[in-house]
Amino acid sequence: MQASRPGSFDEPSPAVPEPASALIDLVIITGFSGAGKSTAMAAFEDEGYFCVDNLPSEMIRSLVELFMHEGSKVARAAVVSDVRLGSYFEGLAQILDGLRAAGLKHRVLFLEADEQTLLTRYKETRRRHPLAPTGSVADGIARERALLAPLRSRADVVIDTSGMTAAMLRRKLADELLPSRTPGRLAVTFQSFGFKYGPARDPDLLLDVRFLPNPHYEPDLRPLTGRDQRVVDFVNRDGELDAFYERLHPLLDYLLPQYLAEGKAHLVVAIGCTGGHHRSVAIAEHLAGRYGAAKDYLVEVTHRDIERPS
User: Does 18 fall in a domain?
Assistant: First the structure.
């Protein structure tokens, strides 16, 4: 038999200090099909983890070795490995034992749910169970339970997602597995755009501000943008902009915490005027300034059409 390479996971070896470039936080996500692994991976990805879905167990070892190379910039990673891989899933328990024996930092997250919950989720999505592509979902769950038993016993965190919504699972993960991060912050993008160049792409909230006075028809203001105070003053010449803010601020003050409580990670608020140069830019800048100071939000402002000819 060929001897194992030094530093491999083929046999137990004493723990050794990790190099400075080594991966410092590896999370391996596994568990039942339909128990919420995709939601979990999305939660880690939103927190800045390097994420890989549907990774064969044998490749976990190669991935870790890659991250340990000098110069690697990956400090956090999350991988999902489950029964979708078929025979490639076999051996995950041994891989986990090898990681632990080598003293490599990692955590195993195991997601499960009661049988009725899993059956209901499969019924809602109308998907076939990976272990019963031509049979009943219940048969697939039974086979999966036997395969997963060795992994559950090795898990650092076991979460039963029965009765949980996706938002509830994300909050639980933030509480139990992401203590060093700042969980629950909502990334908000305020985006200006011009309707004449097409609608905003997939906004969560859209504000049409074409009812406000248009600086485009003032020769001195036309070359400027909504970043210029003269444009803001013109739009607010009759107090219409202030009146708009009096109604808009309470609405956003109510909505943003609601989206945050629901577990939403990113919200796009699109503000549109005719050309995307003046009114929408001024309002997007104003909202970014107002909410950028709040600790619960990560605010970005973008102007889609500001560089187009006025």
Answer: no
- Examine the domain organization and report whether 152 and 191 are in the same domain: no
The residue to which tokens 């996971």 are assigned: 9
pLDDT in tens, 91-134: 788 888 888 887 777 888 999 988 888 888 777 766 767 666 66
Instruction: Show the domain range for 219.
Output: 186-303
Nearest to 297 by CA among 271, 270, 266: 266
What is the C-alpha separation between 203 and 91, in angstroms, rounded? 44
Is 3 contained in some domain? no
| Predicted TM-score (pTM) above 0.85 | no
Q: Would you say residue 20 lies in a domain?
A: no
Q: Which of 20-29, 90-99, 212-221, 288-297 has the lowest mean pLDDT?
A: 20-29
What total number of domains does the chain contain? 2
The alpha helices in the chain, defined as continuous H runs, are: 37-46, 57-67, 92-101, 115-125, 137-152, 166-177, 229-235, 240-261, 279-292
